[in-house]
């Protein structure tokens, strides 16, 4: 038991030794000189001396190069306890003010230009910052002008013929800084429009005193828009047709007995004119005849039934009705359908047979074809008892809009803060024909920008044109 107590006391004595102050003290450490070193080398020197890296700050220096130590704390060769922190200041180099970069010149403003011209060059006028060089790229070449002291400029630009010319107008200052370009589109059109008289046919022999003249007019660059059509000097009605064609109708053109020349002319927006003509012969009518009583010149939506039937009458030379005359109706233009009943469509479609009643009359119900146009549906009715035939025309309007398609401007690459060279364009249709007067809203679902050259509009509603198109300018 005594031995155990002695051992415990020995252990207690051993534990109490540190509190007596008999443990040896570590010697002080000399602070290394890190001035002029890089940060990495300074930190290595400090830690190698059993010291800690303290605060590292930065300051400008006119004498110490960028990235080297300017000063330290404590100073070099000072005596400090091991593990002490050494702070130092790194150089940012001389405190040289950064020169401001001049802003690029503003985008030139071009005066209003015609959308289309038959000229081979176009003169551009406008305004820019005084003294800048105005560059015009694109079209048929490269042209420049210098804005005068008031900022005005004038320059002649050659154009590619018979095509849209996309121009980019840029200002360049004396430091060769360039403005954002101003995009322009000018159509050079030196080609005459296309013109076709579809009815009556050239060389036709007719018995009617008047004839509806119908056909198509189109311009390679502008389609039917802006075209003016005259028939024998009188304005014809012009509507959108299939594709770029416009369809025209000049009803009730008088025919004299004998040979008649019917002349049509079409003038496009650039002033180009083309003509077409047909010659028809009006024959005297003798014996039994068929005449159109009512139903000519009506209008309905495409694939729709005319509001009134077409009624014809067969009489002898003295005007007495001929009953039970066998008639044949034939759609000669478009893909309409005929029927003898208002309720039951004719399964034979474009051709149907009819019989006159006791008054010598027959009633024909007509459903128009798919394509819209002016006078673009035509019906010919013949009788087995008469020498002549009669013709009826009808116009088809577009139906309710059912779809919208992107037609231009998608997937362009444009400089920041610049206007896209091609407007964003869509086409609204009933599935076959463009629909006019439909509101189309353009807005952003991602990114940003402005519409129609406004600095505030990020949503705009545009009505479709006669061809069913709507477009906006995107910046």
Commentary on this structure:
- By secondary structure, this protein is mostly beta strands.
- It is 5% helix and 44% strand.
- The protein contains two helices and 36 strands.
- It has a five-stranded mixed sheet with strand order 7-13-12-9-10, with no helix packed on it. Strands 15-22-21-17-18 form a five-stranded mixed sheet, with no helix packed on it.
- The longest helix is centred in the first third of the chain and has 15 residues.
Give a short overview.
By secondary structure, this protein is mainly beta.
Give the distance, in angstroms, between the N- and C-terminal Cα atoms. Answer: 102 Å
Q: How many beta-strand segments?
A: 36
Shape: elongated
Helix content: under 10%
Strand order of the largest sheet: 7-13-12-9-10
Say what oligomer this is.
single chain
The number of helical runs is 2
For the sheet with most strands, the description reads: 5 strands, mixed
Please state the structural category: mainly beta
**Low-pLDDT residue spans:** 1-23
User: What's the overall average pLDDT, rounded?
Assistant: 87
Residue share in β-strands: 35-45%
């Amino acid at each position: 038991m005594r031995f155990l107590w002695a051992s415990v006391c020995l252990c207690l004595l051993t534990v109490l030794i540190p509190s007596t102050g008999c443990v040896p003290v570590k010697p002080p450490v000399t602070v290394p000189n890190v001035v002029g070193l890089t940060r990495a080398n300074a930190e290595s020197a400090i830690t190698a001396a059993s010291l800690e890296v303290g605060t590292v700050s930065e300051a400008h220096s006119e004498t110490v190069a960028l990235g080297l130590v300017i000063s330290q704390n404590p100073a070099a060769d000072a005596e400090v306890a091991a593990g002490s922190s050494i702070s130092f200041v790194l150089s940012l180099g001389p405190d040289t003010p950064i020169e401001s970069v001049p802003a690029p010149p503003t985008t030139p403003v071009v005066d209003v230009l015609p959308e289309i011209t038959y000229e081979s060059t176009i003169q551009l006028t406008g305004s820019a910052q005084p003294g800048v060089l105005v560059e015009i790229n694109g079209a048929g070449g490269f042209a420049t002008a210098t804005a005068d002291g008031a900022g005005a400029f004038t320059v002649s630009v050659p154009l590619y013929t018979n095509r849209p010319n996309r121009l980019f107008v840029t200002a360049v200052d004396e430091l060769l800084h360039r403005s954002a370009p101003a995009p322009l589109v000018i159509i050079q059109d030196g080609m005459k429009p296309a013109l076709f008289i579809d009815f009556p046919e050239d060389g036709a022999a007719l018995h009617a005193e008047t004839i509806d003249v119908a056909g198509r007019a189109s311009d390679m660059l502008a389609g039917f828009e802006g075209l003016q059509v005259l028939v024998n000097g009188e304005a014809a009605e012009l509507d959108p047709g299939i594709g770029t064609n416009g369809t025209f109708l000049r009803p009730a053109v008088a025919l004299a007995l004998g040979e008649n020349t019917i002349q049509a002319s079409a003038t496009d927006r650039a002033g180009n004119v083309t003509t077409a003509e047909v010659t028809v012969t009006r024959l005297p009518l003798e014996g039994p005849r068929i005449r159109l009583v009512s139903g000519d010149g009506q209008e309905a939506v495409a694939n729709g039934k005319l509001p009134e039937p077409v009624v014809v009458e067969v009489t002898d030379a003295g005007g007495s009705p001929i009953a039970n005359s066998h008639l044949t109706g034939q759609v000669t233009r478009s893909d309409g359908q005929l029927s003898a009943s208002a309720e039951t469509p004719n399964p034979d479609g474009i051709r149907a047979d009819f019989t006159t009643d006791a008054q010598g009359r027959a009633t024909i119900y007509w459903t128009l074809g798919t394509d819209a146009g002016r006078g673009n549906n035509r019906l010919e009715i013949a009788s087995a008892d008469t020498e002549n035939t009669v013709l009826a025309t009808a116009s088809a309007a577009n139906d309710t809009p059912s779809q919208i398609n992107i037609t231009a401007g998608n997937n362009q690459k444009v400089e920041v803060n610049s206007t896209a060279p091609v407007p964003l364009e869509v086409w609204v249709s009933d599935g076959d024909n463009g629909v006019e007067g439909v509101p189309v809203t353009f807005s952003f679902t991602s990114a940003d920008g402005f519409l129609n050259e406004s600095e505030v509009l990020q949503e705009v509603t545009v009505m479709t044109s006669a061809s069913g198109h709507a477009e906006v300018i995107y910046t």
